[in-house]
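ugh ok fine here u go
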Amino acid sequence: MNLINLLFIALLALFHNPIQDKEMSVYDFKVPAIETGEIDFNAYKGKKILIVNTASKCGYTKQYAQLEELYDTYKDELVIVGFPANNFGGQEPGTNEEIASFCEKNYGVSFPMAEKVSVKGKDQHELFKWLTTTDNPDFTGNIRWNFEKFLIDENGKLIHRFRSGAEPLGEEILGALGK
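structure:
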């Protein structure tokens, strides 16, 4: 082997990241919870997970009520995790405390809520980078608006993605849940 080949092999070894060899799943993520502690997706193995980017001052905000009903009805087999984000029209301007209070007071939200994150752009949260680029039967790419939904199966794999207009108790999502 010549010197150039040896240097190339050495550089590959230096920059090789074994995590890249492993197929990622939602179980690789932990996020701060909106009130206290963290949300460890690994704790939801064996359940479906519906991840939703949310906002308190959006035309779709009323979907919180359906999300809560869906969670309450199927919480033995489904976890819903809300991610407040202020990426679209400044429709989530509040602090984590204000958002948590709004969700509880107006919609009785009891499903897990993460701290406010960015779901697009240069400061996009790593989970949403994974969600928007992972192959699934529907589509990939940037989130267009608040209340887009990502359905993860019981093994941590993204299996469906829904735009904002897909209602949580609508046929599209209930069908994907097998209901």
